[in-house]
C-alpha cells in the first residue's frame, strides 16, 4: 500500500477539496440568503427568559395558524440592549418586533427607530390600560408600542424579625408605612438582624431609576410637568435625597446595596442570608425567596410619604423600522396584547398584567395569588408624571446622571442640597443637547 | 585529481535554449515568487481593512458629526473635540485610567516575572502550577466580574469572612471610593499575571544556559545574574509585554462594568467605559467616536515612545 500520494494525486485532492468547499460555501450562502418564498416572515426579540420565549412562540404559532402565509420566529435580545439594538438598526437587521422597557422606548420612538402602529391596534384597547401605562407607548405623534406587562416594588418582610419586633405589618395601600414609621421599624429590624434594617432592589447602574418613586412619594418630580425640565433641585426632591442619605448614614442599608456599587441582586442576597429584615423589591424576589426561605416571609405595600409611588417595571412590544412587514408585525403586537394572551403570558411567566381589567384571580397564578394581587393593586400608585419622565427621549442618558449623583449623595460625598443642584445641572446639559 | 591523474571538471552545460516546459516552469516560479507573499498576506490584510482600518476611518468621520444613531449624522466640525476639552467627567476618566494603568501594568509584569523565574526551576507540580496561574486569563471577564463581586461583597463575601476569621476588620472593598479602584486593580492583576508569566517563561527558556553558567563561574551572585544578565536579555519581551499590558489596561471594560459600573460615584470610571456610556447610554455617537480616537491617540503615542526607547536601549547594549 502506498504511504504517500503522488504530487498529481495531491494536486487533485487539493483541487477537489477546494471545489467541494466552494460549492458548500455557495450552497450555505444561498440557503442563508432568504430567497423569496412568498411567506411573510416576522422576528420577535425578547429577553432571554426561557419560559417567556416559549410563551411568545406559542402565542405566535396561534397567530400564524390564523394568518396563512406567515411565519414567526422568537429570538433572544443579547448583551447590552442599546448596543445591540443600535447596531442592528444601523445594519437594518433589527427584529420586526422588540420587547422593550418603558425606560428604553422613548429614545427610539423619538428618533424614528420605531413604527407608529396606531392603525393596527383596536381603539378600545386604550380603555383597558391605565393612563400611565398607555402613555408608555403613546406619544404626541403616534402609538409606538403597547405596554404588555408590568412590575413594581412592594415591601417584603422577614416574619421572624417582625414577630421579634412585635410590629403590625400594614396590609392595604391605605395602611402603608410612611417614611418615618418605616425607618423606625427598620431601626428595630437592624437590632434583630445585627446587620442592616432593609435593602432596596437595584440590580446594577442601569436600574438606578428604581429609586425614583421615592422622589414622587415626597411630592417631588424628576422632570417637570412638561416632561423635559429637570427638577431634582426642588425642596421635595432634596427632601427625598435627605431621606435616602439617612438610610446609609444611620447604617440601615448596606453600602454594598447602592445603585452603582455591586451588580446583581445584592438586597435579595442580604434578605436570603438574614442580614436584613425588610426588602423593597419587585416580583422577581418571589421565586427566589420561595426557594431560599419558604414560608419565612410576607409582604406589605410599598412605603409612602406625602404621596404614593412605586417602581415602573415591565415591558412593551414595539415594531421596528427594519421590519419588512410592519402592518403584519403591528397586528401581531395587537394579538399578543389581547386580554386573553396577556392573561396567559402573565400566568405562565408570573408577570403582572398591563391591562386594568385583569386581576390575580382572572390570571390564575399557580402560587402566591394574594401577593400577586398586592403587586397589581400597587401598580395603581405609579404616577403618570414619573412614567412620562422615564419613557421620554432623554431618559437613558438622564438615568446615568441619576445613578452618578444618587451614589455621591448616599455615600456622603455630596450633601442632598448639593446633589440636587448638581444633578439638575447635569440633567440640563443632557436635555439641552 | 583522479587516481588516473585527470582533472575532474563539471560537465559543461549545453548552451541551448531552454525547453518550452522549463520556460513555463520558470514563469510559474517567478509568478509565485512575486505574488505568493500577497496571497499569504491577503486574507489578514482584508480582515484588517474590513474590521480595523475602515471602522477607524468611519470613526474619524463620525467624530465630526452629531448623531444619536449610526449613519445619520449632522456635520458639526470640531464641536465634539471642543466639548472634550471642557468635559469634567472626561478629566476624571483620564485620571482614573492613568491610576488603573499604573496600578495594573507594572504589578502584573513584576509578579508574572517572579512567577516565571520561580516556575522555570525544577519544582514538583510545576506544570500544574503554571496551568493554575494561567487559568484566570482564559476566564471570561464578565464571569470574573460576577464572581469577584460576590467574593468582595463586604457583607457576605469570602474576602471579609477570611479577614474576620483571623481577627481583622472587614474592608469596604468595592463600596468605598477610597478602596474600589484598588480592589479592581487587584482583580485585574490576578487575571493578567498568568499571561505575563507564560510570555516570560518562554523568554527565559530561550536564554542560553551557558551565559548563566559563565556568569556563575565568574563569581556573579544569583541576584547579580538576574539583574545583570536575565533582565537585559528579557528586555525585548518586557517591551512587548509592556505595550500589550498598557493596551489591555486601556481597554479593560467588562470587569469594571460588572463589578462597579464606574462607581462608587465616579471613582472607577475609566476612559473606555466613558466611551461606551457616551455611545450607548447617552446616544452621542459622534462624541463617543471622538473619545475613542483620543484613546487610539494615547495608545499610538505610548507605543511610539516605547519603541523609540527600546531601540535606544538596544543600541546601547
Question: Which SSEs are present, and which pair or pack?
Answer:
The complex is a heterodimer of chains A (433) and B (317).
Chain A: H1 7-32, E1 40-46, H2 50-66, E2 70-76, H3 81-90, E3 97-100, H4 102-110, H5 131-135, E4 138-139, E5 142-143, E6 146-151, E7 154-158, H6 159-165, H7 179-193, E8 198-200, H8 212-217, H9 235-249, H10 266-272, E9 278-281, H11 284-292, E10 297-300, E11 313-319, H12 326-336, H13 339-349, E12 352-353, H14 360-363, H15 369-378, H16 384-390, H17 395-411, H18 416-431
Parallel strand pairs in A: 1-2, 1-3, 8-9
Antiparallel strand pairs in A: 3-11, 4-5, 6-11, 6-12, 7-9, 7-10
Helix pairs in contact in A: 2-13, 6-7, 9-17, 9-18, 17-18
Chain B: H1 20-62, E1 65-66, E2 74-75, H2 79-85, H3 88-119, H4 126-138, H5 141-151, H6 158-165, H7 180-205, H8 209-217, H9 222-233, H10 235-250, H11 254-259, H12 271-281, H13 285-316
Antiparallel strand pairs in B: 1-2
Unreliable parts of chain B = 1-11
* CATH evolutionary superfamily of the largest domain in chain A: Periplasmic binding protein-like II
The two chains with the largest interface, and their residue counts, are: A-B, 42 and 35 residues
Strand content of chain A: 5-15%
Helix segment tally of chain A: 18
Oligomer: heterodimer
- Going by CATH, the architecture of the largest domain in chain B would be Orthogonal Bundle
Q: What name is given to the CATH topology of the largest domain in chain B?
A: MetI-like fold
CATH architecture of the largest domain in chain A: 3-Layer(aba) Sandwich
Given the helix and strand composition of chain B, which structural class is it? Answer: mainly alpha
Instruction: Write down the Rg of chain A.
Output: 25 Å
Shape of chain A: globular
Instruction: Show unreliable segments of chain A.
Output: 1-12, 23-35
CATH class of the largest domain in chain B: Mainly Alpha
